[in-house]
Amino acid sequence: MPSLGADMEAGTLVEWLVKPGDWVKRGDVVAVVETQKGAIEIETFQAGQIEEILVNLHSKVPVGTALARIRQGGEGRAGPTAVVSAPAAPTLPPAVPPGVAPALRPLVGGPAMGVRASPAARRLAQERGIDLTTVTGSGPVGAITYADVERFWSTAASRETKRPSWLDLNAMRTAIAAAMARSKREIPHYYLEHQVDVTICEQWLVQTNATLPPDSRLLFAALSIKSVALAVRRFPAFNGFYRDNKFEPASAVNVGVAIAIRGGGLAAPALHDADRLSLAELMGRMRDLVQRTRTGRIRSSEISDPTITVSSLGERGVETLYGIIYPPQVAIVGFGKVVARPWVVDGAIGPRSVIDITLSGDHRVTDGHVGALFLAEIGKLLQEPSKL
Amino acid sequence: MNDIDIYKVLQEELNNIAPEIDMSGIDPAADLREAMDIDSMDLLNFITALHRRLGIDIPEIDYPKLVTLDGAITYLRAKLGSIKV
User: Fold this and answer.
1) What residues of A are in contact with residue B41 (Cβ under 8 Å)?
2) CATH classification for the domain delimited by A10-92, as one of 1.10.3370.10, 2.40.50.100, 1.10.8.60, 1.10.10.10
3) How many structural domains compose chain B?
4) Which residue ranges make up each domain of chain A?
5) pLDDT of A36
6) Helical (H) or strand (E) element with A149
7) What is the separation of C-alpha A121 from the centre of its chain, rounded to a whole number of angstroms?
8) A290, B58: Cβ pair inside 8 Å?
9) Domain A188-387, what fold?
10) How far apart are CA A295 and CA A388, in angstroms?
11) Cβ–Cβ below 8 Å for B40 and A315
12) B33 to chain A: which residues are within 8 Å by CB?
């Protein structure tokens, strides 16, 4: 049972996604655990074959308890065994941002455990928040197929279950309150603002998207996240955690993406290794992340390891956003909406598309001087969108 | 496909994005982004869904024509009509 927060003492196992004999690789989601903060998908940090499930469904066990035994190594060979999750616990930051995915209740309750359904059907049901016990299966032995779930989804009978009722917005608000209050109590913020001409980004996006089908089109947010991810490589003091009175730089760049949830929720799960993804990959991952966050399926690592956060207001809203740092992170970069402004280019005034980029920095780690250089670097990177 | 069928498709796809909204209460001339609190990611998902479901190409430059229900019906009717011919 991994620790998913400093205050977490125990978790309840509500769903096993693997069974003995299954092969898993690092990062596979193997189980769903319910904590005080909601349901979290648990990933394995060990590859191998599941040998034994050690914790039964609906058991509540303390943090550190082994959940399953994994046999490592080749087929049939008795290799060393490892244990799901327990080794991973120490690598998680002790103070997980409590506002993230705080209130996701399990999609699949007790009765659904016995339901026969294909993995694809389960995935679709999870994505759309459908309770499989309410779906009629047409497959072998009454198993629910992908097509059954799709059919169910399109019927009026499913209308009620489409509501993401497992997202408890009140609990999420409590968690946001705790994280933000801690941030304002502990982190001495400083704020910088930089106006950047992004006309070239807009032109590049129009040209690029004109050749792409809708599911491959890029949004400006992909450019902004990538530019921040590349900029922190040069300015690593903005990427990491402040813990035990000192800054620990992170080796990976996992950009937390602030995602608004309909009805008044907010989560900022990580887009892993954002600096190493192509724009197309980053866009695909971001779409997936937004979709899963809004339907209540965030993974354990996405909650625990954002190293810096990016918050974008999008095309509506206002021009400037002053972010509050998510502890134990040390910086948040805000993007306002792009607006047309009179702008001086080569000595002449003309209309340009301009965006306000802000930095909220932790003064215990960095100063305004390096913060300004960091923001300027983001602005520079945005002048060459094709190189992002 | 007549206007009622097109409206049904629009209603279903918009409800996939915003399940809590009663579409019958949406003014057909209102900007859906404002009326339904739809962001650029939602809009892209909406366009992707229409593209997949109706098999029509919707270039980005046409997005502004799709931001009201009336506009979307007119646009899709023209697009679907031109496929038949």
Assistant:
1) 219, 221, 286-287, 290, 314
2) 2.40.50.100
3) 1
4) 10-92, 110-162, 188-387
5) 60
6) helix A146-154
7) 23
8) no
9) Chloramphenicol Acetyltransferase (3.30.559)
10) 30
11) yes
12) 316
Contact in structure between A385 and A234 (CB atoms under 8 Å): no
Query: pLDDT below 50 — which residues of chain A?
Result: 75-81, 85-113, 156-165
CB-CB neighbours of A108 under 10 Å: 21
Instruction: For the domain made up of A110-162, give the CATH fold.
Output: Dihydrolipoamide Transferase (4.10.320)
**3-state SS record for A174-230:** HHHHHHHHHHHHHCCEEEEEEEEECHHHHHHHHHHHHCCCHHHCCCHHHHHHHHHHH
Q: Which long-range contacts (CB under 8 A, 24 or more apart) does A202-208 make?
A: A202/A338, A202/A353, A204/A385, A204/A386, A205/A385, A206/B60, A206/B61
pLDDT reported for residue A366: 98
Closest CA to A162 of A81, A210, A107, A115: A107
AA identity, residue B16: N
Smallest CA–CA distance, residue A210 to chain B, in Å, is 6
CA atoms of B68 and B72, how far apart (whole Å)? 6
Instruction: Point out which residues pair with A189 in neighbouring strands.
Output: A362
pLDDT of residue A79: 42
> Tens digit of pLDDT for each residue in A3-29?
776 556 788 888 888 989 899 888 888
**pTM for this one?**
0.72
